[in-house]
Each structure stands twice: as C-alpha cells, then as structure tokens.
Amino acid sequence: MSRIKKNPPINLVLLVSIILLGAFLRLYKLDQIPNGFYVDEAVIGYNAQSILLTGKDEYGKIFPIFLRALETYIPALYTYLTAISISLFGMTIYSVRLLSAVSGIISIFLVFLVLRNINLFKSPLIPYIGAFLFAISPWSIFFSRGAFEANLALAIFTSSIYFFLLSDKNIKYLIPAAIILSISTYAYHAERLIAYIWLPGFLFLASRGRKLHFFLKREVIISVALFAILQIPQLALSTTPAFKLRAVNIFYQEAVEDQAGKTSNFLPSALSIPLAFTREFSSQFTSYFSPRNLFFNPDSDPQRSLPELSVFYPWMFIPYLIGLFLIATRRQEQNIKYVFLLALSAVIPAALTKDPFSSLRALVLILPMIIVIALGIDYLLKSRYKNIWLVCGALLIPISFILLWRSYFVFLPNEGARIWGYGLKQLAEQVQKHPNEKFVIEQTRTPPVYAQLAFFLKYPPEKFQQEINQDIKDNYYTSIFFDPHYIFGNVETRAIKWGTDTCKDLILVGDALAVSPAQAEEHGLEEIFEISDPMDEVVFRGFHTNPYTRCGKSP
Amino acid sequence: MLIQSLLLIFVLFSNFWIWRLLEYNALLGALIIVTSTLLYLLLKKNSKHYLYIFLPLFILVLFFQWQTTAKTSLSYLDKGELGTQEMRLRQYPLVSIQIRGKTTWIPLAHWFEGRKESITFFRIQKNFSEIIDPNLYFFANHPRERVGIKEFEKFSYVLLPFFVIGMVSILQRHMAKTIFFVLAIPIVLISLIGHKNSLGPFALFPFFVVSIAQGLKLALGKLQAISKVRTIQILLVSMFTLAIILVQLVAYVSY
Questions:
Q1: Beta strands A438-442 and A491-494: pairing type?
Q2: Which residue in B139, B171, B172 is closest to A286 by CB distance?
Q3: Which of A129, A231, B34, B67 has the highest local Cβ count within 10 Å?
Q4: Per 3-state DSSP, what percentage of chain A is helix, strand, and coil (rounded to 5)?
C-alpha cells in the first residue's frame, strides 16, 4: 500500500487499468446487448438525426429545451450530444448508446477523483478500489449500455461534486461547481430537483455556522448567480406541462389518496392526507437504503434491471453495513455530512415517484453508496484480519464477474429482448423489402413503434416534420396530447380496422395475439413473415390482405 | 429508571406485531415479551444472571420460529421455478477448454442452474434478503410487497429513526455479543428455514424492541439540555404525532 502512495507510475497504471476494464464492460457488444432498441432510445436517436440535419426535432421545433418524447417531455442535452456521435458513426444503435457508455467511462475517473478528495479514508488504495467497484457495478454498467440520459446527468453531477469538494479547501472552485451543477439539470429530470437540494444544503454545511460571513463571499454570490442565470431557460417554461408533466405523472397521488381513504372514518382529511403522504414517502425513502433492494433483488421494472442481479453484488452488503455504521459514528465530520447530503439529495426525488426502488431515477445514489461501501472496505483493510479480507476480496471479484456475465451477457439478451424492442429492426427490414406495399402496424397492443421504424428506415427528418400534425409545433410545450397514429413512407401505425383494411391491398402487422388464426382464415390473410425473439416467441407477424377474393376487387 | 421502563413497555405494546403474536398464542407472546425485557436488562446491566435466564428463553423463541415456519427444501423448485430453470439452461453458450489437444466441455449451465448446491445458495440468499429489509418491519414491506405472502404491519414507521439510533448505540457498546445472539442467529436460522411464516421473523422482535427503546431513551436524553417548558411542548407534540400515526396504522390494519 505504501508503494501505491509513493509511486506515481504504479498509481497511473492501476487507474488506467481500471478505466480500461470499465470501458470494456461498457463498450463490448454495445449495439447487441441490450438486445433490441427501446422506444426511448429511438426517440433520442431519431431526434438527434433530425437536429443534425435540419436543426429541428421530429415535430419541426427549432432546438427545444425540453424534447417532446411520446406522451411526455425529456431534457434535451443527451439528444443534442448524440447528434455528434451520429455525425461520426452514422445512424446506428451504437451511436445512440455511445454517449451513455462514454459518460459511464468518464464517471469511473470522476468517482476516483471524488474519493481521493473526500478525505475519509485511511488506506491510499481506497480511491482505486472505489473506482474499481464503480467500474464493475451492475448499476453503472447497465445504465451505461443503454441510451439513458440519467447516466450523462450522473457524469455531469459527479464532476460538479468533485469541484464542490475542492471548493471546501479553495472557494474559487465553487464557481465551476455551480455552473456544472446547473448544466446537469438539462440532462435528466431527477437532477432538476437534486441540484436544488444539493446546492443550498452544501452551502449551508460549508458555511460551518458562520452563515452571514460565508454567504457574503464574492465567490458564493457569483456561484449562486451563475447557477440561477443558467436556470432561466428552464424556469421560463416552469408554467408549462413540458416543465412539470413528468413530475406530475410519476408522483404517487393515487396511492396517497387510496391510503388516506382508509383512514377517512377515523381522521379528518387535513390529517389523513399528510399522514398518508408521510408514510408513502418514508417507505419509498427507506427502500432506497434497503439491502434487499441494493444487493439482492433486481429493480421491479424489467426494462431497467438485470435478471437475477441487483444494482450491486450481494457480497458488497458486508462493507455497506460496516460503512453505514461508520457513517453513523463519524457523523460529526464535515465530509461525512456531505455524504449524508449527497444521499438525501439523490433519494428525495426518486422517493417522490411511485415506482418502488427506481434504480434509474435514483442513479445518483450510486455515488454515496460507493463511498459508504468504500468506507467499509477501508475499515476491513485496516483491521486485524486484513489478510483474510484480502483473500475474500480476491475470491469475490471473479465471482462478481461470473454473476455479471450470467445476468448481463447470458440472460438479458434473451429474456430482455422483447421488452427492449427486439424485432423492430427486423420489421424495418421487411418494410424495406416491400417498398411498394403499404404496411399497417397494429398499435393498440404494443408501445409506440414509430420512432424505431423511422430510425431503422432512416426516414428523412424533413419529410417526417412535414407529415406530422402541425398543430403540435405551434403548441409544442403546452399540448400534451399524444396520438400513436403515424403515417410516414409506406408505414402507418394504428389499430387494424377489420372492416375496411382487409378490402385494401395491405400488409397487416401485429404481435402474436393481434391476428388470431381464425381471423386470418376469416379475412383470407396470408402470412408472409414472422419475427421471433431469441426465446423463440413470436414478436411480429406480417399478413398480406387478399382484397380480390375477400371483397371481390379486381387486381 | 421509571422512564426507561415506561419506554420499554410503550415499545413492547404499541406495535401490531406483539398483538398478532399474542392473538396467535398467548404463551408465545408472553415468552417474547419476557425475552425482550430480559435482553433489555442484559444490555443495560451486562449481568451474567440475566444472560443465564435469557439464553434458554431465546433458544425457545428460535425453536418456535422454526416450528411455525412453513418449511420447504432449500433445493425444491415449484412448477414455475422448474419452467424458469429449463428456460435458463437453454440460454447458456457452450463453453469448452482445450487441454493437450482434447476438448473438455464445461457444463456452466448445469453448475449455475441445475446443481442442488447452486439452487440452495440462491434460495438462502433470497431468504436472507427478505428478512434484512427495514421496510418489512416498519412499512409492512411496502412498496415492494412479496408475491403470495400476506404482509402485515409490525412497528409504527415513526419509530424507524429511533430504531436506527438505538441500533447504532447498542452495536457500539455490545457489538460482537449482541450481533451473535440476537441478530445473527435468528437471521441465519430464518435464511435456512425460509421466511414463509404468518407471524413474521419474530425471533428478531427482541432486538427491534430493545433498539427502539434505546433510541427513544437517547432522544429523550437530548431533551434534558433544553428548558422544561420546551421539553413539555416537544413531548406533547410527539405524543400527539405518535397517537395519530397509531390511529392511521390501526385504520390500515382494520381496513
């Protein structure tokens, strides 16, 4: 360990090795695993292409602040940066996911910097171990390998935390910290709340009780002012659905009302509703620190989780508990207070949403969790049984890789294919194979597919913008109506109209249950293709209509 | 001493868990109340006399935990699990190594999904994870309720911070002994026999009661530093809060 402290070349080799390992885990088969292309990724990809070629999104809106995506809005930074990778590598799945992967790789280095500057550890190895744990953590790997804006936001937020920690020693670093923090709010929804908890919280803690003296410092005033100025474009839209729709949609209002309803016979609503909210919020909040959710059970959303693997490896539970205990006993230390604040900031936005343990919305929590686990490992490395723990670590690392391989590289490409939109690339190939035929794609039973098809068909964005409902462009941030009915090229996405569609010359496409064998026979449909997922389950079936025999039309 | 006793009595009887246990079997409930009280005294006085009385009673609690649990073999797979196993066995790639020009196939799929040892390991891990979730004890496992298990309220959620404070305090003072007897043994036992028990993991009840009582005691101790009027105000507000939360939880339980 002393060699680590004194020998810069060894330190550098160690750090570069960790980053290279992290890069491999994030880039290997990036376009193939997850197996498919999720609708949210396609929306980002197609809009990035649209912005690259026309300077407008799919609706024809010039450089929007919030991107209209299906029935909601997303911060647009990921999409703008993806335009760069699309211009370099073309319109491919790889290009759309690359930014997230690169964010994950950069985050490894940033986590190292944070751990090195937080001054909590005795062992000089800990920043390397922490960066390594982050590099191999299923939580970071999973969100680095899909086009998740949250992962870009995590990288930006982590870099701001690094500057915040530096500012504790030299206040001039507060200015870049506040600027970067403000930028992070343009990357992902959760950061919009996280930043507003973290910044005042940090300033309060950093003042160390000398509030007036601290808050009147030039750097503090400039930092807060710059943070606020950078927020103006977003805040200018604060009254529109674009700003608040996502938060309203995912808040657990129904659950609170339902719980309050149970107590309506005993308590007035002025008490029952706040109590129901308190219980719901507390339960959600606690669940983000529960070992069951962090180390054993995967996220309950199958699109945001790995089969049979949680966000951290099960063995990390031991250093986590030790770390929590140390956090509790060292709570008076300034940097421990920052870790507390970081955890609070990360969890509060997620705990206000209805999904139980949303690993996506609480992605920032990975940073304080790595610090806590690293604290536990630091303690073990300084204990009497150091050698035993080192042997355990040497055994647990390969086991972790095996668990990761099993869940990510064996199960996910098969079990997760359908949920990740597998089959739409193959469907686009079928559309390209039949350029003179019109496709009607059944849309009532599946998530919207227009974005994936437009992406894979490389449909010209300028044409798409013209063919779309023009009213949306005029009421871009206020009109929240979303209609999955799209017509572009030879594709139409909508419900099949059995009365009229079968009398036209069409190719009807639906999932396994959209067209039953009886319906196919009754309407004289001829199956022309079938697309199955890796589990051999039918994803799409294509049927040619037969209007000549069915409706007596001449060919 | 009077306040501490009142706190212990409050924690012992203000939760839904003990009433469920008493309703199921008054003797079992009484045994758990006595065991919890003894643990409190043991941690407070650190006397061997209490230890000698506590240990056999605690072993009896563990026995009841074992007896009331619907035990299934750790390697048993039901119909659904067998289907998943079969599906997963097919997903593994073929892995082989060359030794002196001879190909040796490595049955990774069988090792991870088929062997009884692997199934047992993952089952123990699952059982373990279920009982170390704080939401199980303070929120009836909300928001991640288990499938096929009727969750029930145990402790009031307002007591969770006091549990954390008390647990840290206890672990600081009696780390190895406490962990081994009242935390590790029940957790190991339940991990092995399973968590399917309509009464919950009640072998952990004494540790929870003692931790919460200790946390409340420490919180009350902080009040000594402030004026009497302020102390009375805080106590009145706290009692009101506790009372309405109790009403809230009673309403949930009886709904």
A1: parallel
A2: B139
A3: A129
A4: 60, 10, 30
Query: Residue A4 pLDDT more than 90?
Result: no
Q: What is the ipTM, given to two decimal places?
A: 0.93
Render pLDDT for A207-220 as a digit per residue (tens, 0 to 9). 987 878 899 999 99
Q: What is the pTM of this model?
A: 0.94
Instruction: For residue B195, give how far its alpha carbon lies from the nearest alpha carbon of chain A (Å).
Output: 14
pLDDT of B175: 60
Q: Using the 8-state DSSP alphabet, how is residue A299 labeled? A: P
DSSP A75-133: ESHHHHHHHHHHHHH-SSHHHHHHHHHHHHHHHHHHHHHHHHHS---SSTTHHHHHHHH
CA distance A191 to A346: 8
Contact at CB, A410 and B132, closer than 8 angstroms:
no
Answer yes or no: do B135 and A314 touch at CB < 8 A: no
Domain residue ranges of chain B, discontinuous segments joined by +: 2-73+116-224
pLDDT band at A1 (very low <50, low <70, confident <90, very high): low
Q: Is A36 left (phi over 0), alpha (psi -120 to 50) or beta?
A: left
Cβ-based contacts of B93 with chain A (< 8 Å)? 410
The length of chain B in residues reads 255
**Peptide bond before B143: cis, by omega within 30 degrees of 0?**
yes
Query: Which residue, B80, B104, B74, B108, is CA-closest to B92?
Result: B108
Which residue's entry shows tokens 């022309």? A528
Closest Cα of chain A to B139: distance in Å? 6
Q: Which residue of B has its CA nearest to A291?
A: B133
